[in-house]
Amino acid sequence: MTQVMHRMNVESGCNERPILKERGQREVFCGLTGIVWLHRKLQDAFFLVVGSRTCAHLIQSAAGVMIFSEPRFATAILQDRDLAGMADCNEELDRVVNELLERRPDISTLFLVGSCPSEVIKLDLATAAERLSLEQKSRVRVLSYSGSGIETTFTQGEDNCLKAMVPELKPLPDNERSLLVVGTLADVVEDQFQRLFNDLGIDKVQFFPPRRATELPSIGKGTKVLLAQPFLGETARALVARGASLLSAPFPFGVEGTSQWFRAAADAWNINNDRVDSVLAMPAARAERALARYREKLAGKRITFLPDSQLEIPLARFLNRECGMQLCEVGMPHLDKTLLSAELELLPEDVLLSEGQHVEKQLDRVRADKPDMTVCGLGLANPLEAEGFTTKWSIELVFTPVHGFEQAADLAELFARPIGRRSRLAV
Ligand code: SF4
Q: Which CATH architecture has domain 31-152?
């Protein structure tokens, strides 16, 4: 089913299924983590975290050891005097930014990224970004967004970053139409998608974020937004507010999700079914063949998702419908029913869906269910492994290219590998 959502508050009847809502202690990473994949995509942008030493350590360890001659992220560390309100942080920030931009003429866009410490002392990074942009006289665009860990999940960093760029998008002329694919994709995946859109006959396709921050897409009434990631609700709302309409589709994970995702775009362009079938048939068949060997390993295995990445529902749908896995519980930090309505329709009726987290209660359910695999954040993986559970880090699913037909088998392998390792250890 393809449906165009002109207003973000459209909801479908399938959303009425029961959902366990929990609140309590949570174990999640903060939005700064998004810098790791965003800085790889936006090759002329720089991310300056305004935070503490903890933030600097998080970014360094999440990014691993970056062997760049010129890295594209850094942390401006707030000192005790700043935190105590004894120093003018703005002056210091201006100095750091000016030094950086003088030294790095390759930077076209600078993101000031807020953190828990900068938010606690109410450092106004939006105003600082405006001031610095003016000073740069449009040589460098300075934007700001929050990556703080206060009430967020780690993928919200990308949502906040993309939303910060929406006001910068140029208007699309009223007589033009375009397809806007939204969500960070590995370049190799973006190229594959572009080829398939070309074969379908969709001529103007733009990707957001683009590879260069200076090449932002345009937006207007003729823009149809196709989300590639399920955690971009705020960005989607901002794009709709600029006149775009949102296509409803499952996300492009696995053969089924990818096929339906392309079909949603093809329907919006009134491309006839025969052409769509013939374009998608070969890559879909190839992906199904590649998937078959992992289906053998995964079929019948039971899996629980703990809330972490917001990718939980699309991945659960893929593992259940294409790999034959049984779903015990699918937990997500936040359920955006508007974005996920097409996914929810594809989930089995009897799976426990939960939203939010009370970590102790949820771990009790894991212990009672005894799934063959638990997908969770880094903080819970080691304790669960120590109790004998097989785990998968959900963050890996955001770092690895897993979208599209060609990556469907790689996605299944990410789950099959730990299960295979556990069974070898058990022999
Ligand atoms: S932003 Fe907050 S949660 Fe994230 S590393 Fe900094 S202090 Fe920790």
A: 3-Layer(aba) Sandwich (3.40)
Angle value at C-alpha 143, between 140 and 146, nearest 5 degrees = 150
Residue in the structure block whose two tokens are 């963050």? 395
Closest ligand 1 atom number to CA of residue 116: 2
CA 115–ligand 1 middle distance (angstroms): 6
Q: At residue 415, what are phi and psi to the nearest 5 degrees?
A: -90, -35
Probe target for ligand 1 pocket from 50, 52, 121, with the most ligand atoms within 8 Å of CB: 52
Categorize the per-residue pLDDT at 14 as very low, low, confident or very high, splitting at 50, 70 and 90: very low
CB-CB contact of 146 with 112 (8 Å): no
Residue of 28, 30, 154, 156 to test ligand 1 pocket, by largest number of atoms within 8 Å of CB? 30
Read off the tokens for 315. 């991945």
pLDDT in the model for residue 90: 87
Thinking of the domain 3-11+169-280, which architecture would CATH place it in? 3-Layer(aba) Sandwich (3.40)
Å from CA of 52 to ligand 1 middle: 8
Distance between terminal CA atoms of the chain?
A: 46
Residues whose beta carbon lies within 6 Å of some atom of ligand 1: 30, 32, 51-52, 54-55, 58, 115-116, 147-149
Span 333-392, pLDDT tens digits: 999 999 999 999 999 999 999 999 888 999 999 999 999 999 998 889 999 999 999 999
Considering the chain, tell me which residue range(s) the CATH 3.40.50.1980 domain(s) occupy.
Answer: 3-11+169-280, 20-25+289-426, 31-152
Residue 326 parent element (H or E): strand 326-332
- Homologous superfamily of the 20-25+289-426 domain (CATH): Nitrogenase molybdenum iron protein domain (3.40.50.1980)
> Rounded to the nearest whole angstrom, what is the distance from the C-alpha of residue 384 to the centroid of ligand 1?
24
- Residue 296 CB partners (closer than 8 Å, separation 6+): none
CA of 96 to the centre of ligand 1 (A): 20
Q: How far is the CA of 19 from the centre of ligand 1 (A)?
A: 29
Q: pLDDT tens digit string along 209-236?
A: 999 999 999 999 999 999 999 999 999 9
What pLDDT does residue 3 have? 41
Residue owning the nearest CA to atom 7 of ligand 1: 116
Taking the centre of ligand 1 as the mean of its atom positions, its distance from the CA of residue 91, in whole angstroms, is 23
Exposed (0-12), middle (13-18) or buried (19+): which is 330, by Cβ within 10 Å?
buried
Closest C-alpha residue for ligand 1 atom 6 = 55
Report pLDDT for 67. 53
